[in-house]
Write the structure tokens for this entry.
Amino acid sequence: DAEITQSPRHKITETGRQVTLACHQTWNHNNMFWYRQDLGHGLRLIHYSYGVQDTNKGEVSDGYSVSRSNTEDLPLTLESAASSQTSVYFCASSERAEGTEAFFGQGTRLTVV
Amino acid sequence: GQNIDQPTEMTATEGAIVQINCTYQTSGFNGLFWYQQHAGEAPTFLSYNVLDGLEEKGRFSSFLSRSKGYSYLLLKELQMKDSASYLCAVMDSNYQLIWGAGTKLIIKP
């Protein structure tokens, strides 16, 4: 069965360190997204990609970067982790931009100390 | 600005019916989604509305009124496993999803 997987599931890191969260999907979807989820907020879009070599900034992109070298993977990098980036991060993919459901990974809980 | 409003928390009894409302103000509209999210898990798709009216899918139904910027999710014959957060999301004119903060539904026996 097709799936979308994130790793690691849990991560603790120190302020100032670079961290990369992995996202891998076997749906063969062109569209991939990274969100963060915090209490009291809806999912907020960090970065998204509509295909290989395509990346775009979302609502809360400062301090994050992504790269898309193949269809399956969209790694999210925190350049210099900050305590404000402590959150749960979800990766998602969808077949098209409009009208189709997004499939989510299980999430990565990141704590920056 | 863009805004999605839904109640923070609701409580209902097993076997009953509950309606979760969602109002939205967005730049453009290309459909409204409802997702279910159990604690500590990923959101999973429940329904999609792009035209006015009611979409029924088993125990779950979703309604949309575009002129009122309003949707609701109706859950019938509630079961304990329906205890979860329900997320409303609107796709705007740029085909980006704008998410509400979610409604935590507590089911009591």
About this structure: The radius of gyration of chain B is 13 Å.
